[in-house]
Design a protein that fits this description.
2 copies of one chain form a homodimer. The first copy, chain A, is of the alpha+beta class and 120 residues long. Helices cover 28% and strands 39% of the residues of chain A.
């Protein structure tokens, strides 16, 4: 399939499969240059800034449990449990907006307190 | 419609409409006695404990912006921005499991730090 033939959910699931298996280059093929990620506490703006953000989190990932995936023509939602050294029971939810097969916006929902390493 | 004829998403949307408009009694009609809410930091177990939890949050609600709603036979997902005195830009996502028209589990995803009142 070309990216134009994929549904929004197809694109998002492929993006998700890539980055959670450590393939950041593959994941970034699904990210629009001017994407915005509305993350807790701050927006991440633009593909390069997002690459650093995603790569940083991916480097902490020790496992993954997927919970739900839904989508329509232009949007998709994922629910999953990222496993990190701090937690494997705190969920992450993402709402994606897709244009021309690429992710132009994500609203990222997770509890920062659950992912913060214990203070020394 | 009886609750048995409603889809999982119908039930969840009606539950959501009730509590976000202050109708906690109406919302609780969609909650199973033995429900579990997996909330950030702690599980809320059982209908009465959940009533207190939901009522407490509902009392802080000053507005609402719905972002997305999806569902299948037994599950639904909502994404929305609850408006509180602290924030109107921090999203909440919920993943619901429905049995016999009632919510038996929710996985609740939000950033506690965004909703905490500033310390005096």
């Amino acid at each position: 399939m070309t990216q134009q033939q994929m549904t929004a959910l197809d694109s998002v699931l492929e993006y998700h499969r890539c980055w959670t298996s450590g393939d950041i280059d593959g994941a970034m093929q699904y990210i629009a240059d001017d994407m915005v990620c509305k993350a807790p506490g701050a927006d991440v703006v633009g593909k390069e800034q997002y690459r650093a953000f995603l790569g940083g989190f991916a480097s902490m990932l020790t496992g993954l449990e997927d919970l739900a995936a839904f989508g329509d023509d232009d949007h998709a939602v994922l629910f999953y449990y990222p496993h990190t050294p701090q937690t494997s029971t705190s969920p992450t939810a993402e709402h994606f907006t897709i244009r021309d097969g690429k992710i132009v916006e994500t609203v990222l929902c997770f509890d920062r307190m659950s992912f913060i390493p214990p203070q020394a």
